[in-house]
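sorry for the late reply, my laptop died twice this morning and i had to redo everyting from scratch. anyway the thing you sent over, i finally got around to it. pasting the sequence first so we're on the same page, its 192 residues, then the predicted structure underneath. double check i copied it right bc i was rushing
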Amino acid sequence: MRLVLLGPPGSGKGTQAARLKEYLQVPHISTGDLLRAEVAAGSALGLQAKEVMARGDLVSDDILLGMLESRFSRADTANGFILDGYPRNQAQADALGMLLQKMGKPMDYAVQLEVPTELLVERIAGRAAAEGRADDTPESVRTRLKVYDNQTAPVIDYYRQHGQLTVVNGVGSLDDVFSRLIEALSPAKEVG
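ok and here's the structure:
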C-alpha cells in the first residue's frame, strides 16, 4: 500500500505513521529524515542539498523529487510506503503523481488526519512546554497552522479530485485514531 499521510503540525502524523509502518510492514518515509540521510551519506543529491542549505536556501522540489525517486526504487518499498511531509503544495503533488506513474507505483491513498485548531494549539503548546521550548507560543502555533492550511488545501483538493482522499478524525486516544486509520485503509472502504 502506497499512501500519503497529511495533517497539520500536532495532528499525530509521526506517531500514527510509526504504528502504520509496523502494521502494514512498509517503510515510513519522512522527507526531512530522507534529506538528512542523503546529506550524511554524501550522495550526489545530498551534496547538492547540502550546498543549497549552506546558503540558507530551501532545497528545490527537483532535488527532493530525485531523492524520493531513489528511495522508491529500493527493494523495501516493493509492497508500498507511508510518505510523511510531502507533498506540501500543488506543484509537489503533481510532480509526485507523475513520478509514481512513471515508476508504475501509483498512490493508493491520501489520508488526512483532521484535528480542530484549538486542540492542535493545545497539543503543540503542551509539547513545547514539556520540552522546555519557548518558540511554540499559542500565537505562533496559530500562525503556522494558517500557513499549513493555505499551502496544503490545494494538496487535499488534488487527492480529493483523484478519488484518493480519505479523512480520519484525529481526536481521541492513540489506539482510537489508529483503529480509524486501519478502517479507512481497508479494501472495502470507499475514498473520496
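Residues 188-192 have pLDDT under 50 and may be disordered.
thats about all i looked at so far, will dig more tmrw
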